[in-house]
Amino acid sequence: MYNGDHKKPRRLIRKPEVKNRSGFKSDSGLYDAIARGDFPKPIKIGTRASAWIESDIEDWIDLKIAASRSERAT
């Protein structure tokens, strides 16, 4: 499924995959980062279910990599 402007398809991923990709080991660490505005917020996909947009997580990872590399360069 495409989002209409010929970008790559969007995919929703659930918390276990988000934690695996991001390196968060605990739910509390993940939700603390969200509350601080340091991590993307999930979206509601049901009355008791949430997921994250995969590209948001990929973008966050890219930002962390870039920040880490710029810190080493200074």
Topology overview:
Elements: E1 12-13, H1 15-22, H2 27-36, E2 43-44, E3 50-53, H3 54-73
Antiparallel strand pairs: 1-3, 2-3
Describe the 3D structure:
The protein contains three helices and three strands, in the order βααββα. It is globular. It is mainly alpha-helical and 74 residues long. The model has no long low-confidence stretch (mean pLDDT 90). It has helices spanning 15-22, 27-36, 54-73; strands at 12-13, 43-44, 50-53. It has one domain. Strand 2 (43-44) and strand 3 form a beta hairpin. The chain has a three-stranded antiparallel sheet. The longest helix has 20 residues, at 54-73. Helix content is 51%, strand content 11%.
Compose a concise summary of this entry:
Helices cover 51% and strands 11% of the residues. The protein is mostly helical and 74 residues long. Strands 1-3-2 form a three-stranded antiparallel beta sheet.
